[in-house]
From TrEMBL, chain A:
Pfam families: Med20. It comes from Galeopterus variegatus (Malayan flying lemur). It comes from the Eukaryota. This is Mediator of RNA polymerase II transcription subunit 20. The lineage of its organism: Eukaryota, Metazoa, Chordata, Craniata, Vertebrata. Component of the Mediator complex, a coactivator involved in the regulated transcription of nearly all RNA polymerase II-dependent genes. Mediator functions as a bridge to convey information from gene-specific regulatory proteins to the basal RNA polymerase II transcription machinery. Mediator is recruited to promoters by direct interactions with regulatory proteins and serves as a scaffold for the assembly of a functional preinitiation complex with RNA polymerase II and the general transcription factors. Belongs to the Mediator complex subunit 20 family. PANTHER family: MEDIATOR OF RNA POLYMERASE II TRANSCRIPTION SUBUNIT 20 (PTHR12465:SF0), UBIQUITIN SPECIFIC PROTEASE HOMOLOG 49 (PTHR12465). Transmembrane segments: none annotated. It is found in: Nucleus. Component of the Mediator complex, which is composed of MED1, MED4, MED6, MED7, MED8, MED9, MED10, MED11, MED12, MED13, MED13L, MED14, MED15, MED16, MED17, MED18, MED19, MED20, MED21, MED22, MED23, MED24, MED25, MED26, MED27, MED29, MED30, MED31, CCNC, CDK8 and CDC2L6/CDK11. The MED12, MED13, CCNC and CDK8 subunits form a distinct module termed the CDK8 module. Mediator containing the CDK8 module is less active than Mediator lacking this module in supporting transcriptional activation. Keywords: Activator, Nucleus, Transcription, Transcription regulation. InterPro entries: Mediator_Med20.
Automatic annotation (TrEMBL), chain B:
Pfam families: Med18 (PF09637). This is Mediator of RNA polymerase II transcription subunit 18. The keyword Transcription regulation applies. Belongs to the Mediator complex subunit 18 family. InterPro entries: Mediator_Med18 (IPR019095). Keywords: Activator, Nucleus, Transcription, Transcription regulation. Component of the Mediator complex, which is composed of MED1, MED4, MED6, MED7, MED8, MED9, MED10, MED11, MED12, MED13, MED13L, MED14, MED15, MED16, MED17, MED18, MED19, MED20, MED21, MED22, MED23, MED24, MED25, MED26, MED27, MED29, MED30, MED31, CCNC, CDK8 and CDC2L6/CDK11. The MED12, MED13, CCNC and CDK8 subunits form a distinct module termed the CDK8 module. Mediator containing the CDK8 module is less active than Mediator lacking this module in supporting transcriptional activation. Its main location: nucleus. Component of the Mediator complex, a coactivator involved in the regulated transcription of nearly all RNA polymerase II-dependent genes. Mediator functions as a bridge to convey information from gene-specific regulatory proteins to the basal RNA polymerase II transcription machinery. Mediator is recruited to promoters by direct interactions with regulatory proteins and serves as a scaffold for the assembly of a functional preinitiation complex with RNA polymerase II and the general transcription factors.
């Protein structure tokens, strides 16, 4: 469940990771989630008679053999990494929006049953925000553990806790799936893209 | 990874099926032939290009929980006319079950669909399929189908990295062993249009 915040990106990330380490969380490698945006090429639009749609193709290091393709408010397809090869074949019909690639990279922390990932969101060379993802391993139904997640988040995010993710809508009792995570990252990335560039200093 | 598919096909009348299956059981790797029941849908994306982009979506009707299979097949490779098999680029992708909804969202429209029911054999990297095609009478309803013909389609194919031309020689040698029950040939897709 990603959350964006921060004035100075680098310092805030360090603050968060230090808090986590003080709680007792253990570092467990790194993670990366990236997102590329495609839009229907003009040549296809003419004959379809519909407004151009944006399609997002995403990868998550937690699922290294998969590729996620989604439309906003539309279906999310989970495919194997050959989907990227197909997108190359489709380049006459779907074009990559210029300089649209956005990604978040950072450290994974394990704290008991919680997996926390704090990442710096970048577009090209510039850092644009921070993502925090928390996963509660034992539970697959969102409604059953939402309060627990909130309580845990409060312990290191203080007042910056988010509201219930929109991806659940009315389906609070549905079984959680990786597609739900990717939809949330897509929404976060879109929100960050629209924000003004965050003033940064000392970013390596 | 873009791979290449090598392909030869032929057909046998219904009454010759048993003899062919018997010979294939002798020649091929499996002890018991594997059967399959698949539903395939062919989608087109029309643009201003002359020819639409074709994708084939296939799902198993008898094995619950298996991923859907999306396949792109390129144009046949121009090259050695003496090559024994049809050679095309292909990209194979396993996907989640919402594939058709997703393709429609991308702008694809279904051109046609069919059900394929038959047997699958393997010999090394060669795959031999003997199956019957069924026309779907009401779009989307795979329960109500009718056989397209009184014969079974026989396909010999290999998916391999590009440029392995000895593959088509191996296929020719295998095809020889199936004569006279069935004659497998390189089918020119343009002839069928």
């Amino acid at each position: 469940m990603p959350v964006a915040e921060g004035k100075n990106v680098q310092q805030t990330v360090e603050l968060l990771t230090r808090k986590l380490e003080m709680l007792g969380a253990e570092k467990q490698g790194t993670f990366c989630v990236d997102c590329e945006t495609y839009h229907t090429a003009a040549s296809t639009l003419g004959s379809q008679g519909q407004a151009g749609k944006l399609m997002y193709v995403m990868h998550n290091s937690e699922y290294p053999l998969s590729c996620f393709a989604l439309f906003e408010n539309g279906p999310c397809l989970i495919a194997d990494t050959n989907f990227d090869v197909l997108m190359v074949k489709l380049k006459g019909f779907f074009q990559s929006a210029k300089a649209s690639k956005i990604e978040t990279r950072g450290t994974r922390y394990q704290y008991c049953d919680f997996l926390v990932k704090v990442g710096t969101v970048t577009m090209g060379p510039s850092a644009r925000g921070i993502s925090v993802e928390v996963e509660y391993g034992p539970c697959v139904v969102a409604n059953d553990c939402w309060n627990l997640l909130l309580e845990f988040l409060q312990s290191f995010l203080g007042s910056h806790i988010p509201g219930a993710p929109a991806v659940f809508g009315n389906r609070h009792d549905a079984v959680y799936s990786p597609a739900d995570t990717m939809v949330q990252y897509m929404e976060l990335f879109n929100k960050i893209r629209k924000q003004q560039q965050v003033p940064v200093s000392g970013i390596r | 990874m873009v791979t290449t598919t090598y392909h030869k096909a032929g057909s046998v009348l219904d009454h010759s099926l048993e003899s062919l299956i018997h010979r294939l059981r002798g020649l091929c790797d499996n002890m018991e032939p594997e059967t399959f029941l698949d539903h395939e849908m062919v989608f087109l994306l029309k643009g201003q290009q002359a020819s639409p982009f074709v994708l084939r979506a296939r799902r198993s009707m008898d094995r619950a929980g298996t991923p859907w299979h999306l396949r792109y097949l390129g144009q046949p490779e121009m090259g050695d006319k003496n090559r024994h098999a049809l050679v095309r680029n292909c990209v194979d992708i396993a996907t989640s079950e919402n594939l058709t909804d997703f393709l429609m969202e991308m702008g694809f429209r279904m051109d046609h669909e069919f059900v394929a029911k038959g047997h699958l054999f393997r010999k090394g990297i060669m795959k031999i399929m003997v199956y019957k095609i069924f026309r779907i009478l009401v779009p989307g309803n795979t329960e109500s189908t009718e056989a397209l013909s009184l014969s079974y389609l026989v396909e010999l194919s290999v998916v391999a990295p590009a440029g392995q031309d000895m593959v088509s020689d191996d296929m020719r040698n295998f095809a020889e062993q199936l004569k006279p029950l069935v004659h497998l040939e390189k089918i020119d897709p343009k002839r069928l249009m």
